[in-house]
Amino acid sequence: MPDYDPKVIHRSSQRLYFSAKITKVLYPATGILLGAGVGFGLFKLAGAVLGGASFGYVGKRLGELKALELESQAQTAICFTRIEEHTRASATTNQPADVPTTV
User: Which residue range forms the structural domain that includes residue 30?
Assistant: First the structure.
């Protein structure tokens, strides 16, 4: 089994954030182009405008959902690295980790 390397997880998280940013741009752009093409083929100029706007909106919403998924994966990976760091720190000092107490 490979050794734990938090740098790999952080690089992966950075890539996920970058992919999320790109997704927020590419999905609407693809929707606009696709909608304009379909609309123009059916109704000429007015169809291109309406098709581009409606497909662009749908692409924007889908892009936001996909970006949220990617960002959540990045946050989960970062959270796991923090848990690992705190667990290792408490294991090396032979003390239990700081656990909040409830009253």
Answer: 1-95
